[in-house]
Amino acid sequence: RPDDAVLGEEGTDRAGSTGLTWVVDPLDGTTNFLYRYPQWAVSVCCEDGDGQLVGCVHDPNRGETFSALGGGGAALDGVPIHVSTLGELDRALVGTGFNYDRAVRAGQAAALGTVLPAVRDVRRGGSAALDLAWTACGRLDGFWEAGLQRWDWAAGVLLVREAGGVVTAGPTAHGPVGHVAAGLALAEALAALVG
C-alpha cells in the first residue's frame, strides 16, 4: 500500500493520501535488545482518522503473535484472549515502564511510590507493546506508563480494547500524558492511583 502514510520510531515517517497510517515500531524495547535481554517486540498498527483498525505485536523471543481487529476481538496465535477480570487492586499484578527523560522519571518514581504499596506487585518489562499485549491476555492485570510515543502504544491499545479492557490517556499529577490499561473491574481504581 504505497500511498498509505507511515509513522515510525526509526524516522521512516511518510505522508500518505489514503487516510490510512501505519504506525510501526520495528523494535520496541531497543535497550533490552542491545543488552540481549529477551523482552522486545515488533509492533504494527493501521489507523484511520477514527482510531486503530488492526494491530499486531510479535514477540520473536517467545514465538508469540498478538493480533486485534477493530470490532473483531483480540487473539494470541489465533486463540481469542481476554483481559483479567480481577477487581481488587491489592491482588493486582501491574506493569509499568520508565521514560529516558530524567524529569519524567522523577514523576514516574513518585507514581511508583504510590502504586507499589497498593498492589500485589509491579513489573517493569521494558517494552510497552508487550506490556499492553500481556495486559490484553491477562498475564498482567493492568499497565500504566507516562510519556509514551504513538508507536509504543498504538497496536497494544487496540489489543487491550478488543480483549475487553479499557485504556485511558491523560495528564498525570506526576508528569506528561500517561496511559492506563486494565480490565473494566480494575481500570478506574488503577487510573485514580496513578493519576
From TrEMBL:
<feature type="binding site">
    <location>
        <position position="28"/>
    </location>
    <ligand>
        <name>Mg(2+)</name>
    </ligand>
</feature>
<feature type="binding site">
    <location>
        <position position="25"/>
    </location>
    <ligand>
        <name>Mg(2+)</name>
    </ligand>
</feature>
<dbReference type="InterPro" id="IPR000760">
    <property type="entry name" value="Inositol_monophosphatase-like"/>
</dbReference>
<dbReference type="GO" id="GO:0006020">
    <property type="term" value="P:inositol metabolic process"/>
</dbReference>
<dbReference type="GO" id="GO:0046872">
    <property type="term" value="F:metal ion binding"/>
</dbReference>
<dbReference type="GO" id="GO:0007165">
    <property type="term" value="P:signal transduction"/>
</dbReference>
<feature type="binding site">
    <location>
        <position position="27"/>
    </location>
    <ligand>
        <name>Mg(2+)</name>
    </ligand>
</feature>
<dbReference type="Pfam" id="PF00459">
    <property type="entry name" value="Inositol_P"/>
</dbReference>
<protein>
    <recommendedName>
        <fullName>inositol-phosphate phosphatase</fullName>
        <ecNumber>3.1.3.25</ecNumber>
    </recommendedName>
</protein>
<keyword id="KW-0378">Hydrolase</keyword>
<dbReference type="GO" id="GO:0008934">
    <property type="term" value="F:inositol monophosphate 1-phosphatase activity"/>
</dbReference>
<feature type="binding site">
    <location>
        <position position="152"/>
    </location>
    <ligand>
        <name>Mg(2+)</name>
    </ligand>
</feature>
<feature type="binding site">
    <location>
        <position position="9"/>
    </location>
    <ligand>
        <name>Mg(2+)</name>
    </ligand>
</feature>
<keyword id="KW-0479">Metal-binding</keyword>
<dbReference type="GO" id="GO:0046854">
    <property type="term" value="P:phosphatidylinositol phosphate biosynthetic process"/>
</dbReference>
<dbReference type="InterPro" id="IPR020583">
    <property type="entry name" value="Inositol_monoP_metal-BS"/>
</dbReference>
<dbReference type="InterPro" id="IPR020550">
    <property type="entry name" value="Inositol_monophosphatase_CS"/>
</dbReference>
<keyword id="KW-0460">Magnesium</keyword>
